[in-house]
Amino acid sequence: MTAAVIAGAVGIAFLAAGTQSLTGFGFALVMVPLLSLFWDVKLAVVTSTLLSSVSLVPLVVEVRRWLGLSKAFPLAMGGLVGVPLGLAIFTRIDADLLKVCVASLVIVASLLLYFAPQFSVGGPPLVGSVIAGTLSGMLRASTSMGGPPLVLYMLGREREVEAFRSTVLAVFLFNSVLTVTGLVIADQIGGDVLTATGLALPAVAAGLVAGAWLRSRVQQELFRTLVLAVLVSTSIGVIISTSGGLV
Asked: Which of 123, 167, 231, 239 is the most exposed place for a label (fewest CB within 10 A)?
């Protein structure tokens, strides 16, 4: 592992943690495409998964009083199906191609939500929750980017910022525990990943503090716009960073 990779991992981890603390999601959406610019994409995915899992713990503790188990439970149950599927994808399918497909769908869905704020996922809430949870778990395990399906689903149904954040963060943590367990079993966590993770942990802590400071100064309507802007901009970054490898 080079000094450039280490420095990049530390700096990007700070930005990723700040984004997640501010919006309730976005760690991997920031970290994976940027870190994969100068490091192996699968190592970036695993490192992002470990760091974001650690960052989720204090965030979930912070928002626990707003958590509605009736909302989080079916989403988490979907993750029980999605995470094993995602792990199978991660070990067998080219990650760059998968990231480009996901990013393209995220951009379309985000623009739809921006121009039609009252849009919501159709069908019975239980069915929609399980589907969103399954997709989120699958993408979490395969690319570390499990946010888009869950965030887009919750944006269409939940208008309160703290209720939104508590549900999203709790489901992310549940899927993260499943994913890390699967990565350990599949022997996907090597020495370079552990080194990058350990060195970047202080930056993650600093990013969480910075994001919390900004969050207290952001209004709900601006919050919603910011969430969608993060989805679009980072998805464009994913496409740009991976398009060269697909040519």
From this structure: 123
